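Risk register update: the risk of archive-format incompatibility is retired. Evidence:
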Amino acid sequence: MNKTETDSATVNRIGHILYATRKHLGVNQTTLAPQLGLDQSALSRVESGKQMLSAPQWFTFCAITGVQPDSVTRGYFSLPTALSAIRLPSRYNSERRTRVRGILPLLEHTKQALGDAAIDEILRKLKVDPDFVMNMNAQVNFNFILDLVSETALRLGSSQAAIDRTADIATRLDSQNELAPLIAAFKTQPILLMTLVVQHLTSLGSDFSYQVTASSATQIDISVQPGDHLNATELRTHEVFSKIYPSYQRTFFEQFAASVGGPTLSLVELESFFNGAARTLYRMTISA
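Archived output:
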């Protein structure tokens, strides 16, 4: 990609972030434009990728909205609140307990494998505005996750290779963002690091409960249990989710531990929710 193409992509990304942020906040162009030193027509050109914001204007926008300045490199942003003016279908509007960041690996895998248009097509089929998932702090419910997994599996398949790829993306996304400081500080202490990873996963939502149930200098037990608001029978019998999720969860823990580069951790599954237990229980042990 040459410099002109790169600059064009940046202009389009900034414009899209402004547009999507306004939609989440329920703010019109006439209100936002003067705060950035623009008139409404200029802001319209920015949002459509025909005009570039200056650096001071971008930082002013970030200060006003709470969008992180480095969002321009990722194309995603995190608003300070989970509340959004973008409406969801009634099927997805109750019990919204998971942050969009929790499904980002699946969204990114689909984009990388099939292109941006494919994920937009899936979301529109589900009657969800694609701009909704640009805000990492927006919340979705488990019906949305089930439907999204099913639709992506139709296009990508549910093979172990596809699951491995999604888990790999999850590992790298976390490593590059929220977990990066933890990895740098604790890569030689894998048991402590995995404890912090569990806390991080808990912060993404409450559809599933992640807990460290036991730990020592060389071993850690991690419990993963569906929330009481979820139907256990539906999860265990769901044709796609029951196949993909347990494999994805195990693969994520294995790949994360391997990617850190510290002492090797081996993983065994002691209990499985999908085989009738109340939870799934993993034991990770530092290999000799």
